[in-house]
Amino acid sequence: MNVPRKHHWLPRMYLAAWTNTGTADGQLQVLDKQAGRAWSTRPAKAAAETDLYMIDIGEVAADIAATEIEDTFAKIEGAAAPVIKAINNGAAIPTGEDQENLMAFVSLLAMRVPARLRWIDDFMRKPVEAVYRRLEAEGKLPQPDDPELAAKMKEWFDQGLIRIEIKQNARLDMMLSSLPTLMRLLMLRHWTVLRSSAACGDLVCTDHPVLLEWIKAVPTGTSPGFGLENTAVFVPLGPTTALLGLWNAEPRVPTLTAEQVTFWNGELLGHVDRFVFARGDFAALHKSGAVDRRDDVLGRWSTV
User: Would residue 22 count as lying in a domain?
Assistant: First the structure.
């Protein structure tokens, strides 16, 4: 039996909105921040990694398939697909089961991307590293018999050459265990569909598609949280459609102007990990205040 090993961290049906045909068979533009280049491809060949959600069944007592998580993701995507399609075609925020399916999808979109999985690794690694540092400071850290090797190991650890590896199942377990709470918090927000016209330019999509932003001034260094007031959650659903989730408020005008499209594209690019997905050219507000077009973005990345 052939086990699918190519796991999409952004669903093909989601990326399809940014293709030239609006379907999964069309072509979309991919911008690579790391390589400083762009190319066209189909959603099936974008936003994927090998074995990203593969379960190590050798460490699981239960009788489950290695692809259990991928299979579950497919069910969530399948339930949300018609809801997202309806919204992109003009429907309002759904209610009841359709809203639950939509929020389950957004929760998954926030937690499944590579940058979030790396964040989970760091979150789980830090307590172990803290214990190591404490034992080291107290002189209780077991040492090799060879003093030279002990000194080398300390040097390697301090330089980050020795890292504590987080096992795949532990990483996936933390990702999955966060989804119910995140979904409940998203369900409590007031959601609005934001729309723009073709004349206002396209919204882009990135490998960090669920933005969480403060909407009021806070002390520097204060991180927003999905359960905190005075925050907004912004999720692009297509080149001219996005979701906005607020606490106890709704946007006065749910229509995006060209300036607002440019602003949100700037925010999306400001949080990008590596990849941007677009239908074509776009405008994005750079932190310098300049309005960048697609080629300007690539130019900035190629000089970094």
Answer: yes
Burial of 47-60, coded b for 16+ CB within 10 Å and e otherwise, reads beeebbbbbeeeee
pLDDT of residue 4: 81
Residue 136 lies in a domain: no
120-166 pLDDT per residue, tens = 999 988 887 787 778 777 877 777 778 887 787 778 777 776 777 88
> pTM to 2 decimals?
0.89
Q: Can you give the residue range of the structural domain that contains 257? A: 7-107+188-302
Asked if residue 14 belongs to a domain, the reply is yes
Which of residues 259 and 129 earns the better pLDDT score?
Answer: 259
Three-state DSSP class for 270? helix
67, 54 Cβ separation under 8 angstroms? yes
Rounded CA separation 279/248 (Å): 34
Residue 229 lies inside a defined structural domain of this protein = yes
Contact (CB, 8 A) for 207 and 263: no
Count Cβ atoms within 10 A of the Cβ of residue 199 and give its class: 0-12 exposed, 13-18 middle, 19 or more buried: exposed
Buried/exposed code over 235-265 (b: 16+ C-beta within 10 A; e: otherwise) = bbbbbbbbbbbbbeeeeeeeebeeebbbbbb
Number of folded domains that form the chain? 1
Checking 223-229 for CB contacts under 8 A at 24+ apart, the result is 226/182, 226/185, 226/186, 227/185
pLDDT, tens digit (0-9, with 9 covering 90-100), for 201-248: 999 999 999 999 999 989 988 999 999 999 999 999 999 999 999 998
